[in-house]
Write a structure and sequence with these properties.
Elements: E1 12-19, H1 40-69, E2 75-79, H2 81-90, H3 92-103, E3 107-109, H4 124-142, E4 148-150, H5 158-166, E5 171-174, H6 178-181, E6 190-192, E7 197-201, H7 204-214, H8 226-233, E8 241-247, H9 261-275, E9 279-280, H10 283-288, H11 312-315, H12 318-329, H13 341-348, H14 352-356, H15 362-371, H16 377-396
Parallel strand pairs: 1-2, 1-8, 1-9, 2-3, 4-5, 5-7
Antiparallel strand pairs: 6-7
């Protein structure tokens, strides 16, 4: 039970929402020589749409729920560093809306890799640097230092957990690894890695029940209503923890307003609180409660089951693997991080979205087509990315380059 549970005997609901927007790549060609890798117009357009369709309406619903319920409704948010940069540049009202939430005292800010990449699979030094940079960015934005870590795509593993613990985090969020759980409940807090870092798991059945319902792939084919879902949450048992981890694009982009997704989100907190069987808690509250935690041996990496449970959606293809290896092979020649514009360009290219765009997996192709429709499929995405890396390598070894045009480092052409 949490310190504000009012004596209820049920479990806790950990709602965690994640915001991420990548920069959109230009169609960079072999003979291009300008150090402009990102398309400013497409990036601005995508960022504005994301904020107007997803972030602002979702945050308004959440803030209204806090106004009604006070500290009976608590949750956490994570915002990638790239998203924070783009919000400040193209949609500052998004940052204001997040600040409003945090100022209520009911919302916990989580840490995440700044550029939402796969540095953890290639360079722990780069990985740790991304996390520290993101923690500093969130501290500056919200005047609070994150205490809980959420990795790219909820991917976890023993080494990832050990790094998070070494950097001083109190807990980590992860997907529920079926093999490691071996029949045990995903609604418990476990420890992972030799650091015994507490790990809060996403409940895939509960989290996916909503998405499957609204996209029509659920077993009944009917839309899941807020009262029905609240009744399911009421079954979370004493001292159990149900993780509902969603991306902001779930609300307003993947499922548009007309689907009823915002009505669902608007009514759910009140219905859960009214039942009194379970309560909302932040990750830090759950960990602070203590209690017995069994060890969960994750092995190397675990990703959400919808993506196959491993890294194959991002690194499983030959194009993806080659691109990622070439990207991180540049780490040692990028120069001083504090002074190098090329180094920041290299960091921006870490975003997992670019590797996903090279996947031949049907779901990945569909996801990428929505984000970067101007790239003609996985092969074109690979060619564009490698052209950029070749140019970045030439810049990093000191060959003659055109000067960087502006601080935003995004192209003024549409490719």
């Amino acid at each position: 039970m949490t310190e504000n549970d009012g004596g209820r005997s049920g479990g806790s609901i950990v709602l965690a929402l994640h915001a991420h927007v990548p920069r959109i790549l230009r169609c960079y060609r072999t003979f291009d020589r300008q150090a402009e890798y990102f398309d400013v117009y497409r990036t601005r357009h995508h960022c504005r749409n994301y904020v107007e369709q997803c972030v602002l309406p979702t945050n308004r619903v959440l803030l209204a729920a806090i106004d009604r319920l006070g500290d009976q409704f608590r949750f956490s948010i994570s915002i990638s560093g790239i998203a924070a940069d783009l919000f400040e540049l193209h949609a500052p009202e998004a940052i204001d809306s997040f600040r409003e939430l945090v100022m209520t005292g009911c919302v916990e800010v989580l840490a995440t890799p700044y550029d939402q990449g796969f540095a953890f699979a290639y360079s722990m030094q780069a990985f740790a640097g991304e996390i520290v940079r993101h923690r500093d960015r969130m501290t500056d934005l919200f005047d609070t230092a994150p205490r809980v870590f959420r990795n790219t795509e909820l991917i976890c593993g023993d080494q990832v957990a050990n790094t998070a613990a070494h950097l001083g985090f109190d807990a980590i969020l992860s997907d529920a690894p079926n093999q490691a759980l071996a029949g045990r409940s995903c609604q418990r807090v476990y420890t992972c890695g030799h650091s015994n870092l507490p790990m809060i798991l996403r409940d895939p059945q509960l989290a996916c029940a909503v998405s499957e319902s609204f996209d029509g792939s659920g077993p009944s084919g009917a839309i899941l209503t807020a009262p029905e879902f609240a009744a399911r949450l009421a079954n979370v048992s004493h001292n159990a923890v149900a993780g509902l981890f969603w991306n902001y694009q779930t609300f307003g982009s993947r499922f548009v307003t007309q689907s009823g997704i915002f009505d669902f989100l608007r009514h759910l907190p009140d219905l859960v609180v009214a039942r009194g069987a379970v309560g909302f808690a932040t990750p830090s509250q759950v960990v602070a409660n203590g209690g017995r935690m069994d060890e969960l041996k994750l092995g190397q990496y675990v990703s959400p089951a919808e993506w196959g449970g491993g890294l194959s959606p991002w690194l499983g293809g030959s194009m993806q693997s080659h691109a990622a290896h070439q990207l991180f092979a540049l780490e040692g020649v990028m120069g001083d991080p504090a002074n190098s514009v090329a180094f920041r360009d290299w960091q921006c290219l870490h975003a997992a979205d670019y590797l996903l765009a090279m996947s031949m997996h049907d779901r990945a192709v569909a996801e990428s087509a929505r984000l970067i429709p101007h790239l003609d499929g996985p092969y074109h995405a690979y060619i564009v990315f490698m052209n950029i890396l070749d140019d970045l390598k030439r810049r990093s070894v000191g060959q003659a380059r055109d000067p960087q045009p502006d601080a935003s480092r995004v192209s003024r052409t549409t490719g």
